[in-house]
Amino acid sequence: MTILRVLGSAAGGGFPQWNCNCRNCDGVRRGTVRATPRTQSSIALGDGQHNWLVVNASPDILAQLRSSPALQPARTPRDTGIVGVVLMDAQIDHVTGLLMLREHRQALPVYASAAVISDLSTAFPLTRMLSHYCGLDTRALALDGTAFSVPPLDDVALTAIPLESKAPPYSPSRNARRVGDNIGLRIVDRKSGRRAFYAPGLARVEPHVLDEMGAADVVLVDGTCWRNDEMLALGFSTKTAADMGHLAQSGPGGMIDVLDQLPATRKVLIHINNTNPILDEDSPQRRELEAHGIEVAYDGMEISL
Ligand code: MLT
Ligand code: MN
Ligand code: ZN
């Protein structure tokens, strides 16, 4: 059995965000909004035998590991359950945690697309920086549908699914998309046959992505914004959710409409921005999700595959 554990369910900035006084951030600090703080975007896949694959390494990874004792099996004086890291993109909220893992005892296996490895070797040179610490053992992911496994998690078949979202603002390909700037991950437990699809950044549900979502028992997808103009309306950004590579939940063709078409038994929103009203457990938007059978991920949520 594969365990999918949500290490961090918030988008970049976390919840509450350090400099934000939106209704949610201010309300959760003061206790006037019923909501739970969340760390930045990451999940881990476990085999039930102390081995964990981290998918996206968030800047909050040290706090996430402290609240996930299973990832520290303590078999030797220096130990970790982490056997590798898979990256969905090169966004700061998904890669900065690699810096926090620099005390690793050997080169850390990192699986990412060639486009992401290129950003992490040039514009944000983590591979060079970390070569002076543990080192990163980067492996370029096939984008042609070939499955891979990360040893010793041999019962978990993973497939990178290229999809449309956005490369990070610092990337030379922010406005000139390369295939592989963003991927989703098909996760199949070879024993149970159960399948999940994880895509924390998803701008547009292309036909092949809809097929992926339709074939999954569990979908964990982009829950960044409720409205496309959410950040604009608050005066926090000049960009829409779509400009930032995220499909909003509400409105025609929004994520709720997409999820309504799927037979999946668990439909979960993840990578939730702190401005999103679904974080308020008493909000009408949260009630609307419940009416559609859609869950909101929280830190520590676990799903068995
Ligand atoms: C995004 O997905 O757009 C990011 O969360 C932005 C960021 O990390 O600042
Ligand atoms: Mn993000
Ligand atoms: Zn906020």
From TrEMBL:
Residues 51-272 form the Metallo-beta-lactamase domain. Pathway: Cofactor biosynthesis; pyrroloquinoline quinone biosynthesis. Keywords: PQQ biosynthesis, Transport. Transmembrane segments: none annotated. One of its GO terms (biological process) is pyrroloquinoline quinone biosynthetic process. InterPro entries: Metallo-B-lactamas, PQQ_synth_PqqB, RibonucZ/Hydroxyglut_hydro. Belongs to the PqqB family. May be involved in the transport of PQQ or its precursor to the periplasm. This is Coenzyme PQQ synthesis protein B.
